[in-house]
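User: Second chain of the day. Same drill as before.
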Amino acid sequence: MVGEALRAVGGAAALIVAIATPSGAEVAGVASVIDGDTIEIHGQRIRLHGIDAPESRQTCEDATGRLYRCGQRAALALSGKIGRSPVNCRQRGVDRYGRIVAVCFKAGEDLNAWMVRQGWAVAYTRYSTDYVDDQAVAKAQGRGIWQGEFTSPEAWRRAHH
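Assistant: Same format as last time:
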């Protein structure tokens, strides 16, 4: 009966079943970047596990003290990395906003780690220590937001909401 229902409504039901299953489900497809730590695939918002990128409106200082839109730069970096390639996300949970929390990959490369290693996101140690080593590399090499001064995305959200 369930099989018949899935065939009757097609792929959309299969996607809903995949999303509704417990941790470990996968969502794959062409992604749209919402911001530096959130993408959307097939209308489903996905928060990148273990990382926190500057907010879209957030500014940071570069090495010369000049302000730039680091949140926008983070989103553009992720968008440029993904392009129109398919992305595969492995669910780790669901956040309080109903978004899937996942580790996402492009051609086998961990995009969450890439964002932190490039300095466009920080390891979100409140939830995971998975990307602490990647953050140390970015910080040591002065990549992305580590080139100058910035407020942690979490502190920036508290101050602006």
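The radius of gyration is 17 Å.

User: Great, on to the next one.
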